[in-house]
Design goal:
By secondary structure, the protein is of the alpha/beta class. It has seven helices and seven strands. It has a seven-stranded parallel sheet, sandwiched between helices. Helix 4 packs parallel to helix 5. It is globular. The protein starts with a strand and ends in a 14-residue tail after the last strand. The chain binds NADPH dihydro-nicotinamide-adenine-dinucleotide phosphate and 2-hydroxyethylsulfonic acid. Pfam families: adh_short.
Amino acid sequence: MNTKIALITGATSGIGRSTAHEFAKHHIKLVLCGRRKDRLDIVKKALEKDTDVHTLCFDVRNKQATMDAINSLPEEFSNIDILINNAGNAHGLDPFQDGDTEDWDAMIDINVKGLLYVSKAITPKMIARKSGHIINIGSSAGKEVYPKGNVYCASKHAVLAITEGMRIDMNPHGIKVGAINPGLVETEFSQVRFKGDPIANTVYKGFNALQPEDIAEIIYFVISRPYHVNIADLLVFPTAQANSTIVKKD
Ligand code: NDP
Ligand code: 8X3
């Protein structure tokens, strides 16, 4: 059996964790990444009845730690076939003039530079094997800027630009690259964005938000297409959401 190996960043929560569960159902071998080791251990325990799981605990902001973690993969997990660049978050929702520069640094460092570091560490072996599939989790915020979204939207616009650049540069090497761009998904995203402020509990109220499992199923669909099919860019909203600012609530 030709078992594929997937590395998922941000596998401790939300979309990344659901994707790990979805891939395990299909017996894809998993390398699960995140900063919270206790959570990595819980996900590993839940999934290793279905597939082989290895965990890597590191912060994608730390270039050296990222390289070291990926270079430390044991032989049986070292040839990554599928990379899901998912780790990321919004930090704050403020008019530009009131923005906290720590929040700006976090979003640029995690959502943009972290994605670059992880990809830089993984792509040499994909290029050597002339095969691989990279999926970057962008956002509807990468297609449309919304009020107070300024730097988060910029970070996700950057993810889309990087995706296009990667697809061009990986093209001679037979590597697929694409982006999946969700609208509102009910995860810990808003808890992180609003730093424990109760407003986070209202974001997904009054309409049927996307669930992380919805995105995980779409990611599995994308990675299970035949080799000649590359879903390059996909935007998915909950039905109640028309764009970044229009959401039909009860
Ligand atoms: P969650 O907060 O539920 O999950 C975020 C994940 O990213 C966690 O597993 C977290 O792991 C990881 N992460 C965050 N910072 C770092 C870091 N510095 N180093 C390593 N890992 C990190 O949010 P979502 O599942 O919603 O978000 C996943 C992706 O989806 C993000 O890129 C987000 O921008 C995007 N997205 C989300 C949408 C939504 O509405 N929820 C919509 C569109 C896109 P840990 O804390 O353990 O490190
Ligand atoms: C997450 C979607 O609209 O909360 O990227 O920014 S949104």
